[in-house]
Specification:
Blueprint (H helix, E strand, L loop, with lengths): L8 E2 L9 H12 L16 H18 L5 E6 L2 H21 L4 E6 L2 H12 L3 E7 L23 E7 L1 E2 L4 E2 L12 E4 L16 E5 L10 E6 L8 H7 L10 H6 L9 H16 L2 H22 L18 E4 L6 H11 L2 E2 L10 E4 L6 H16 L2
Parallel strand pairs: 1-12, 3-4, 3-5, 5-8, 8-9
Antiparallel strand pairs: 2-10, 6-7, 9-10, 11-13
Helix pairs in contact: 1-7, 2-7, 3-4, 8-10
The protein binds pyridoxal-5'-phosphate.
Length: 386
């Protein structure tokens, strides 16, 4: 098997870097898992070793995030985008169970992922209220204060949805959005899960595609309040004009079957399990939160302290993402020069998202402080050439 360097300076936004020791263990387990003579991709998803993988990943999520007994942890194949749809079906159904009505789906649109989620809800037939649209002059980069949100009346609200960290636009919430008592809050944490403490009890549902901070594409973690697994009969949902969930998106079915209603990609869940076990061993979320904060601080400091006008940061300071640091370098050919110079020093994955351009540094959990320090030096040196 070909080895790779211990430290890789890769800042891709996802799929993203994973710890070397996790990958080495996973590679061995793909060939021969725990002496069974079969690889983890070959074992039945209903075999004892596969069930143990799912249980171990679930336990680690629960431990790391202090998930209360009121909530269930599930794994699905959906990807982040699949959850945009799954949440609509499940949360509208849960609201109908409680009230007998089709509730209003509220969206705080603070970047392109929450925008996509709101569009999907509309497409599926939800009554959508965009309570916040943070796009100004075609660009995202702020989060208006809660006093400016126009949420629907609480009794009519099925849920309030937001994206905790907008991966493309580099906008991150610094607080849990306040919602009226009894209103279900739903969050997309695909690009910052396990980077800081979260009070799970405040949420109806949290989901994350795992391919940025905790695994490889193909598995999605969903944390759902158990009371939201209650839903009316399909006929009642149809009568209310609420779309029925495809069975693989039906949280009640998934939860009842320990995430194994259909074939779960156990190997992908195993990588999550290994990554989370490593995180627990290294001090868990409190330690990771400090490291993530420190890495982001070093980067923003370098960018902010360069000669004025060299680096342009489009995101308001108070909502700057710790995970995805975005900026532009005005001037013909300068971004290209920045990327080429970085590549010569072994640093890759720095191009901005194709929809917004510029530079994006993704500083997920597996990106080492050595990589950040190297990049900080480069940011400082590059600025001096202008
Ligand atoms: C915040 C966020 N949500 C959702 C998605 C979509 O995830 P997927 O590609 O797994 O559907 C992404 C992908 O990058 C993301 O960053």
């Amino acid at each position: 098997m070909s080895e790779r360097p211990e430290i890789i300076h890769y800042f891709g936004a996802g799929p993203a870097l994973l710890p070397n020791d996790v990958l080495k263990q996973a590679a061995a387990d793909l060939i021969n898992y725990q002496g069974t003579g079969l690889g983890l991709g070959e074992l039945s998803h209903r075999s004892a070793p596969a069930i143990a993988v799912v249980d171990s990943a679930k336990e680690s999520v629960k431990k790391l995030l202090d998930v209360p007994d009121s909530h269930e942890v599930c794994f699905l194949q959906s990807g982040g985008t699949g959850e945009f749809s799954a949440l609509v079906y499940n949360l509208l159904a849960a609201h109908a169970k409680k009230t007998g009505k089709k509730g209003i789906a509220n969206y705080l649109v603070t970047g392109s992922w929450s925008q996509k989620a709101a569009e999907e809800a509309k497409r599926l037939g939800a009554d959508v209220n965009v309570a916040v649209n943070a796009k100004i002059n075609g660009k995202y980069g702020t989060i208006p204060p809660p006093s400016e949100w126009s949420l629907s009346p609480p009794e009519q609200t099925a849920y309030v949805y937001y994206c905790d960290n907008e991966t493309v636009n580099g906008v991150e919430f610094g607080y849990i959005p306040p919602v009226p008592e009894g209103v279900e809050l739903v969050s997309d944490m695909s690009s910052n899960i396990m980077s800081r403490k979260v009070d799970v009890s405040k949420f109806g549902a949290i989901f994350a595609g795992v391919q940025k901070n905790i695994g490889i594409a193909g598995a999605t973690v969903v944390i759902i309040k158990k009371s939201l697994l209650e839903k009316p009969a399909d006929s009642e949902l149809v009568a209310l004009g609420i779309p029925l969930a495809p069975i693989v998106f039906d949280f009640a079915t998934i939860a009842k079957n320990n995430s194994l209603y259909n074939t779960l990609p156990i190997f992908n869940v195993h990588i999550v399990s290994l990554t989370l076990a490593r995180l627990l061993k290294n001090g868990g979320i409190p330690v990771q939160q400090v490291i993530s904060g420190r890495k982001a601080e070093k980067l923003y400091m370098a960018l902010d302290s360069a000669t004025e006008g060299v680096y342009m940061l489009p995101v308001a300071k108070e909502v700057r993402s710790r995970m995805n640091i975005v900026f532009t370098i005005p001037g013909e050919g300068r971004e290209k020069a920045f990327l080429e110079g970085a590549k010569k020093k072994g640093m890759t994955g720095l191009s901005g998202h194709r929809s917004v351009g510029g530079i994006r540094i993704s500083s997920y959990n597996a990106v080492s402080e050595q990589s950040i320090d190297l990049l900080v030096d480069y940011i400082n040196d590059f600025a001096k050439t202008i």
